[in-house]
Design brief:
By secondary structure, the chain is mainly alpha-helical. It is built from 13 helices and 4 strands.
């Protein structure tokens, strides 16, 4: 494209908020910045030749999407930035996994909706920053089919399970439901048509799963008790869906505040997953709330990071949790980079 065409196009995209201006993004604390860079470099070292990551050999679609999100939060895209090569290879890997029915991933994965939802989220954020017209067309086609698949996979209750409603005999649960809704919201923000009734049913599902006694969101529409991680994810999901009601959200927030203090021990499981979503909620709550939360979560995440040596280079990795270090490291890197505000899905 000639330069005299590039400049007006770039200006138009900046005004529309499609391409982010680096000058608009906050710098991180130097100690955090160093640890983030070391963590991102560790992810680069872990990327497979085909462009993907795994959790101990499993879940390549989900792990590739989460690792890719960590790089996007740094500001890299498929064409620009220190980690552009890793982002581009991750995108290529995921688009190759798009099936005729719209599923991104493998149907023989026993939890393929997780990967599908995270892939929608990641690829939609890439689409929002993509300047190459051919890649934009490819991503638009992949995501349009993905949204259709997600709509068809939704259960009658309005949620999603580990697999589609058909494959899972109508089973649904909270965490996969949130993954689908965030992915759908990312697609909608990127210009992909998303039927309103799918989101409305999902919001209704979350409300039905909210415990009237404590405000926590239970495991599924069939019960299972209030879960801190799912509740934090539900609030983030409702915020992304534009739901700021004065009934459900305040009760969910109060439940999260009592259960998810950053300095407390993990007594409920999935601590990093819970704070992956709770950090998004705290960031959306505003500067004062976010500053207090960030100070606490930052100390813990810096303390938990493990330094590993590669030649003459120090890398950082988080090994907590049973899913694996790629998963935990990716989640923590996203949390620590929310202040940069590169991704529309995480912006205030």
């Amino acid at each position: 494209m000639p330069d005299f065409f590039r400049f007006p196009l770039l200006c138009a995209l900046l005004l529309a908020g499609v391409i982010s201006s680096p000058q608009l993004h906050a710098a991180l604390d130097p100690e955090v910045e160093l640890k983030v860079t070391q963590g991102l470099d560790w992810l680069v070292y872990q990327q497979h030749k085909l462009g993907h990551w795994t959790a101990q050999g499993r879940y390549p679609t989900a792990m590739t999407s989460l690792a890719g999100m960590a790089f996007l939060c740094e500001g890299s895209t498929t064409t620009q930035g220190k980690y552009s090569d890793s982002v581009r290879r991750a995108v290529d890997f995921l688009t190759r996994r798009s099936r005729k029915n719209g599923l991104i991933g493998d149907a023989d994965d026993e939890r393929y909706t997780y990967g599908h939802g995270f892939a929608m989220l990641f690829l939609s954020q890439v689409l929002g920053e993509e300047e190459d017209l051919d890649r934009r067309r490819e991503l638009t086609e992949v995501l349009t089919k993905a949204v259709i698949f997600t709509g068809q996979a939704q259960t009658r209750a309005g949620g999603w399970g580990y697999v589609s409603a058909k494959d899972g005999s109508g089973f649904d649960e909270g965490s996969t439901t949130i993954t689908q809704v965030q992915g759908l919201r990312g697609c909608r923000n990127a210009g992909i048509p998303v039927p309103k009734e799918i989101i409305d049913k999902a919001v209704g599902y979350i409300r039905k799963c909210t415990n009237p006694k404590d405000g926590g969101v239970q495991y599924s529409s069939k019960g299972g008790g209030s879960r801190p991680a799912i509740t934090a994810a539900a609030v983030a999901c409702l915020y992304n869906a534009g739901e700021y009601d004065d009934n459900y959200v305040p009760r969910m927030l109060e439940y999260c505040r009592t259960q998810l203090k950053p300095g407390t021990r993990d007594s409920f499981g999935h601590w990093h997953y819970a704070h992956f979503y709770y950090a998004q909620v705290m960031y959306r709550e505003g500067d004062a709330t976010w500053a207090a939360y960030l100070e606490s979560i930052r100390k813990r995440l810096l303390r938990e990071a493990e330094t590993v040596r590669l030649g003459e280079t120090d890398l950082a990795v988080w090994k907590q949790g049973y899913i694996g270090p790629v998963y935990t490291t990716s989640l923590n890197l996203i949390i620590l980079q929310l202040d940069k505000s590169y991704l529309p899905i995480y912006q205030r």
